[in-house]
């Protein structure tokens, strides 16, 4: 659930239900535009390192992918919007790790449609 938004966020609003992919992309660099968001050229300040993720050594200054609250850079690009309400909460929990990585990689941009795929049983 989005609890607060910064001045650069335009697509999301407080109260939106979202999933947070663990890798971080800017959405506008050459690699992100080509769908290689795990090798984003902007989000990792370490010289020679492309790509970033929450809570991984050498993957940028982004703490805790499993924290209760998370600051999400480039939120309009990185957060996957879920349907409003509380239905399927346990199912969507599965989307908070590797599954949503597919969203940004397949051209999911601010304002674009979203698709949530069911996980295999
Ligand atoms: Zn990028």
From TrEMBL:
Keyword Membrane: no
Biased composition (Low complexity): 111-121
Keyword Zinc annotated: yes
Region spans: Disordered: 97-121
Keywords: Metal-binding, NAD, Oxidoreductase, Zinc
Parts forming coiled coils: none
Domain called Alcohol dehydrogenase-like N-terminal: residue spans: 2-76
GO MF term set: formaldehyde dehydrogenase (NAD+) activity
Enzyme Commission code: 1.2.1.46
Cofactor(s) the protein needs: Zn(2+)
Domain of life, per lineage: Bacteria
InterPro entries reported for this sequence: ADH-like_N, GroES-like_sf
Family indicated by similarity: Belongs to the zinc-containing alcohol dehydrogenase family.
Protein name per Swiss-Prot or TrEMBL: Glutathione-independent formaldehyde dehydrogenase
Organism this protein belongs to: Actinopolymorpha cephalotaxi
């Amino acid at each position: 659930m989005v609890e607060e938004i910064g001045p650069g966020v335009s697509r999301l609003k407080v109260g939106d239900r979202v999933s947070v992919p663990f890798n971080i992309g800017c959405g506008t660099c050459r690699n992100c535009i080509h769908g290689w968001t795990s090798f984003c050229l902007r989000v990792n300040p370490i010289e020679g390192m492309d790509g970033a993720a929450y809570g991984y050594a050498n993957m940028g200054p982004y703490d805790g992918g499993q924290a209760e609250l998370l600051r999400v850079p480039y939120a309009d690009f990185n957060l996957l919007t879920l349907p409003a309400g509380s239905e399927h909460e346990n199912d969507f929990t599965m989307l908070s790790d590797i599954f949503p990585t597919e969203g940004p990689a397949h051209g999911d941009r601010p304002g674009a449609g979203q698709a949530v795929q069911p996980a295999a049983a």
